[in-house]
Structure formats: structure tokens, C-alpha cells
Sequence to fold (535 residues):
Amino acid sequence: MPQYLLSVHSNECATQKPMSGEDMQAMMAKIFGLEADMKSSGTWVFGGKLHAPDTATVVRPGEGGTLTTDGPFAESKEHLGGFYIIEAPDLDAALKWADRVVDCIGAAIEVRPFAQQPQTSA
Amino acid sequence: MSEALPGLQEAEIGRIFREEFGRSVATLTRVFGDLDVAEDAVQEAFALAVQSWPADGLPQNPGAWITSTARRRAIDRIRREARGRDLVAGIAEDATSLDPELHDGPTVHDDRLRLLFTCCHPALATEAQVALTLRLFGGLSTDEVGRAFLVEEATMAQRLVRAKRKIKAARIPYRVPEGRELEPRLRPVAAVLYLVYNAGAEHPPGGANRAGDLCFEALRLARLLVQLMPDEPEVLGLLALMLLCESRRGARFDESGGLVLLRDQDRGAWDRTSIEEGHALVRTCLRIARPGPYQLQAAIHAVHADAATFERTDWGQIVALYDQLLAVAPTPVVALNRAIAIGEVDGPARALSLVDQLELDGYPALHATRAELLARLGRDEEAQVAFERAAGLASSVAERKHLLGRARELGGA
Fold:
């Protein structure tokens, strides 16, 4: 079964209105519901929210070994904030899950197919 | 069984292929699950037809000949490529027999819709949707598609390759959307066909050589879509809209290729056959009573087509239709056209106040409309500036000629 990356690109400069405790709880409940559905339908492969980009470390090829520096990788306003990896039979099926993710988080996401079929998947 | 046609020309074979291309590609895509295999095989069948038809005569059912020849070619190719062995095993062994289901019947009907919905999938960029639709569904050559949009053949070929690569990599499915999904997915399909029509409508009708004329191709494909989805009122509305626009295309251009406005057109030169067909479709839409943007635009054009003179146009009805259109398609362009209609009912001052509220600074028609309204109010200097601004933004030569002409008239007054 093809796999897709659903990635959330968050804009660190965007001034986000602080959520009320109630709103936060409602959103988390929605996300838990979505993830439970992904798991029970066999869609879920992996997913998670990342720490802020200033926690990133970059390792790049250098002369005589690798060079490790403070991250993030790209000087960009948008950073990967979190992602899901899902299995879906085709793009339309993946887009239906994407609709639900966007409905939960209220932000745009990118849907991209993996180049290789997973080795272990039946 | 063949009808002997010794004088059969390549151009005539080309015309038949254009008609049959989409049907064959659609069927082979279902059978082989691969757009490239289908497209290449149908192209090879065309090369064979160019060799054999002039000598052997036209096959009794040219479409079936193309599909079965292409199918054999595709199987040969897959056999040559080791990776395809399993695929061939799954396909009926007797590749030489002609399965009637392969060419006609409900499956093929669905295949063509599947192909169209794949070409116009919202995950593809609009320019890719247009290119794929004209090439695969419409059967135009890559070169013809490129020329129509003033793009080099190599660039257009690249665009098609990239689009097909995305279809394959992202697994854009080969299916007709159903239920609640259909309406949003039909929108880009209609938009692509209307965009093709409008690209052609920037030029006067071409006369005898109609193949490759984008308006002609858009109408042909819209008719095909009506045949495939006869119960979708927006599909009927789209064809009606195109027909009613097409009825006036000849009258929209003067001898030097400049644009002639609706108010100045020779209404006797409008094509009555297209108008009658458009009107009949609008009436069918009214009976179905599920209005949408294309139907409403067609209805507006139908009111214009009914008017003996510009002055006798039922502007009240047109304003009412624009009110409905604005409710379902609240875009500044619709608001601009509504303002123009209101100007005919309530006068130019009222229309100008509506136009000046719109945020459409980069849109040539906004400045052209402002200019006409200012001229009617006797504010000639402002009108001249607005005409020049519109001409600077205009995309077509005909439009620019007309606008600069208007600016000069006011400058000389």
C-alpha cells in the first residue's frame, strides 16, 4: 500500500492567539479521535509533533569528517512542525485524511507520496 | 468489409484520430493502468493507420480498429519489457480478437469520464490540467497544444511529462468521483474547458480550417461531456454558455481585428443556430432547477441574445441574474459585471460608485468599465487615462486596439 507524508508547516512569526484551556482540550480531543481512527483503519504508520526549530541541530559533510552546527537547516520562516505518515490506496484516499487533519489543526498541510513502497507492508 | 478510400489524406486520418483518441487512451489506461503506455500505444496505432488506411481503405469502425491495434501494440511493448510479464498474464490472452466491450458500452463511457477527471484532478496545476485534457482527452498533438498557448513544443512536452509523473507518483486515481465529491471535482473540469474556450475567443473565428481552433475544440469537448453526464445541469450550462458566446464571436471583431463591444455589434451577424441550441439548453436547465454559476452566466447571455437592440435589452432581468450569480460566485469580476448591468438601469453614476468599491486594480476590464462610465458622465480626461490604463493591462491585441482607439477619440474631442 502506498505511503504518504502529511506534513504541517508552521510559521514561527505568525502571532498565534493563545488558546484557552477549553479550546486546547477540544482540539486535543479531536486529534486523539482522528489518530484513533487512523489506527483502527490501518492507515496510521507514524506521526508526531516536533519541538520548536531552535532545538534542531544540523550535521553536514565537511573536510575530513562531518560538521555539526546549531540548526535549523534552512533560514526560513516556515518550519516542519509535525507530521503523519499514513498508508492509503491512492491520493484521493490520502486527501480525505488530509481534510480531517486540516479540520483538527486549522492550518495548511502538504501531502507527498513516498518514492519507495515499504518493504514490510503486506 | 473496408470502404475503399484511395484518396484518404493524412489530415482526414488526423481528424478521425482526434475524435477517437480520448476514447482509446481512456480504455487502454483502464486495461493497462498506465497513461504513458496507453498514450504511446494509441500514437503508434496512428502511425500504422497513416501507412495502411490510404491503401486498404477506412476500416468499418475506425475507433474500434484504433483501440484494438493500440492494445496489441501495448501488449507487445509490455512483453518486451520484462517487468511487465505479470501484467500481461492478467490480460485476456487472445489479444487479436476484438472485444466489443473494449470499444463501446457503459465501461468505455465511464473510462472517458475517468480520464477527464484524472486530467483535471485538483492536485494538478491548472496549466497541467489544460495540457493533459487537450492532449489525452482531446487528442491534440503536443505541438498543437503548445501552439495554442504560445509555448514551445519542448516546453509543453516537459509540462505533460511532469504532470503524468505526478499522477503516477502520487497515485492520482483513475475514477469518477461520486456523491458529495462530484460537485467540487466537476468544477475544475468545467473551468478547464471554459478556459480553453476563452483562450480561443481572443481571436476571430478562423474560417475553413477549424481543427486546432480552441473554441471549436472546447465546444467539441463540452458536447462530449454533455453526452457523458447528461443529467448534470452545470455541464449543460457550460455548453450553453459556450454556444451563446460562440454565436457572437464573428461579430465581436472588426475587419482590422479590433474588438467590437456588445452595444455596437451587428446583431444580424449573430449565429442563430448556436443561439437556438444555447436557448434550448438554458430552458432544460431551468426545468432541472438546480442553478449554478455556468447556468446563470448562460442565462445572462441568453437574455442578451433575445434583445433586438442593445437598448431593448431586459436589463432588469440581467441585474436579477447577476444578483443570483453573485450569491453563488461572490467574486469581484461578477460584481463588476453586475455593476455594468446596474449602470444600464440606474445610470452611470450609480455604476461608477459600485465599480470604485472593487479591488481589482490589475484587471483590464475594471479600467475599461470605469473609462466607459466616466465618458458617459462627460469626465473625458479621466476616461482617457482609464482607457490607457486598461490598454496597458490588456492581454489580447484586439482588446488593446479597441481601448487605445477609445482613448484617442476622447483625446481628440
